[in-house]
Amino acid sequence: xxxxxxxxxxxxxxxxxxxxxxxxxxxxxxxxxxxxxxxxxxxxxxxxxxxxxxxxxxxxxxxxxxxxxxxxxxxxxxxxxxxxxxxxxxxxxxxxxxxxxxxxxxxxxxxxxxxxxxxxxxxxxxxxxxxxxxxxxxxxxxxxxxxxxxxxxxxxxxxxxxxxxxxxxxxxxxxxxxxxxxxxxxxxx
Amino acid sequence: xxxxxxxxxxxxxxxxxxxxxxxxxxxxxxxxxxxxxxxxxxxxxxxxxxxxxxxxxxxxxxxxxxxxxxxxxxxxxxxxxxxxxxxxxxxxxxxxxxxxxxxxxxxxxxxxxxxxxxxxxxxxxxxxxxxxxxxxxxxxxxxxxxxxxxxxxxxxxxxxxxxxxxxxxxxxxxxxxxxxxxxxxxx
Lengths: 189, 187
Prior knowledge:
The structure holds 2 protein chains of 2 kinds. By secondary structure, chain A is an all-alpha fold. Chain A has helices spanning 5-18, 27-38, 44-56, 61-99, 101-106, 108-136, 142-156, 162-188. Helix content of chain B is 80%, strand content 0%.
């Protein structure tokens, strides 16, 4: 290992985070390029594993991936360094925007641009939802479709706290896995 | 204690947003708009829009923005810390467990059960953004006068472009902004 991995870790994640526009998935290929191909700190298979963990853990994917890379390279202190590196660019940028927000919002041109962009963002989210729903329903099964409809109804019509919906669906998945595992064991006996 | 409230709210957002990206959106809306009234729905839509145009995760952007609006830079730092804290603990624990057990069947089962719910949550939050962008007052219109036809046109145009050509969302949003500027200036 290098003499000062902390500085390199910090600068790398800072740079990656500053250029991760859009969803968090964008940071994964960038990280792979930096830490696998360029620095050789993490091997190919490990990066895939880390990606899976980052995706399936709560929180932002970019932050999770940074924690994993930092932890992997230099332990908990490495993770702390990469988190700060990842959080700093959005913190600075949004702080600056936030300071000028009122003037920004009252400007006629800005509000026209923002109105247009809001319609655009709504379209982007619809696009994301369509793609995600397709992936979840491929191959088609009734159960995820039913879960999706119920969860949507709970959130949209009944305004149930999303945390309860997520906990309920996670519990359902756990129970289903246990039941299936038991059935498999009985079949084997 | 506003700092504690901020930390706790964004701690929950960080803890329960699974799946990254827009998955955090409904949770942020619930905490920040519905529960505490720190932002109005239109401010919330602004921060989602700004998040789309700037680097960094939505949750971090929202945490910074909300904290900053309520009690300045310390607020921004506290909210961001709250947002990141659960990730640090859980991800490191999972990494440790993962290297120990590699494939946890029960964990995969939980994640599989969560996926349709996550999609539904995003759909629900997305729909309120569609309403806000297209209809006056953000509720289902009772007459056609309440529909913002320019926004509706931009929305449909963007969706077609995104579905058909898989265009970069940043480019689409920028295009929508320019279209808004031109169309609202003309009409």
